[in-house]
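Q: Here's a chain of 476 amino acids. Please give me its 3D structure as tokens.
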Amino acid sequence: MHMVIRVIVTVLLVATISLMGTGNISAAKHKTDWFQAARWGVMTHYLVDNNVSAQEWIDRVRKFDVQGLAKQLKSVGAGYYMITIGQNSGHYCAPNAKYDAHTGILPSKCSTRDLVADLYNALNPLGIKLMVYLPAGAPAQDSIAVNKLAWINGAVRNQQFQVKWESIIREWSLRWGKKVSGWWFDGVYWPQEMYEHPQAPNFRSFAAAAKAGNSDSIIAFNSAIKYQYPLVNVSSYEDYTAGEMNEPLGVECESRWVGKSQLHILSYLGATWGSGKNRYTNQQVSKITNNLNKCGGVITWDIPIKSNGLIVQSFVDQLVALKNSPKNIQLLAPRPPGNLANNKKAIFLDAFGEKILPVNSAKHFPRFGVDGDLNTFALAGEEWSWIYQVDLANSYLINRISITFGPQFATEYQVLSSNNGKDWSLLKHEKKARGGKYNYKFPRTQMRYIRIYGIKPDAPNQLGGQMSIAELEAYQ
């Protein structure tokens, strides 16, 4: 999936514990309204290796069955469809004279068939919107294109490249006009270095190039934040969140908005991006999708396709099941009797209780510590010592708290409570813990918030590894 394989530690934080916005956006019509109303859509990776010749690529694109795919998408109820224009190989599924002029590559690696336009002609009569995917950098596997486009892979201004790249994007946008309703740009890994500038090229000129043919098209920029949780919008010129996420099972939301962007997640139904067998059951797909939809969020499912462009049948069947699924499926497990913490709002905080921390490995979400399932666990990223905080939603008289640690555990920790989220009382200071489950009884105490402050391990190679919470329980 990724244009560049890179580990980037980027801290982009918002004062929220889940995929929430900063409040309600005006009730006035928003350009993402159609996107939100669609609820979910389908993306496919249509890619080849760099060793495929220009003629082989032309022949392959010519055989793409747009009518067959359109019928499949209609049958499963997809509200929109997104396709890759191209990626690392430098082969693109539509002509672009600017690209050819900038790279000087002959014969052109851009197809003679305009697959995007043909897809629109097949999808539009069926009421299905069309979106496109494009990396924000040069095709990494094509050394000639990288050199001619003056691309430098790294945290640099890349001004010369961006001017050329925007001209290429603008030509496609003008070619397609209102046929393309949205863009998803991958690899915006260095937003500050490349795009956060008062003078062009910047985010403003980047967005303007994509919107040249359709000012109502919507845009997302995929930065390193895709590895983080909660999600944030990358730029004020972004209309919806890129939301790339490998493990969407633990995602929770409370608002349609992330800042001023439409909440959106992109994940895959196969074993990985664009390939493999179904990794989820039909019920899981429905739960994930409906969980996001119920707060106004949108999810795009990446689906494997065959060489002729048609979706693999097992995924057609799964999407039909999603189309026919009840809309009130709850993602969370049934609440254990009496546990007031179950399914409540949880967050990761630093040791000072001031900064929200991301999810470790982008899959051990806060909710997994209160989901009633000991096979899942909550684990924060970026810091060894951290705080797990749960909001019980109301104030209760609590006299028992239980903690079950995950595969990693705190050897020293504190259990604290608060009724207002500001003033904290110490309930227990454990100094010689060795994992497993711990039960604490105490006089009934009025509380709404509970914290587990993992003091140690506080560095690598210590007993316990790092605190993880499989389940937190609170009882009256």
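Q: Can you summarize the key feature?
A: The radius of gyration is 24 Å.
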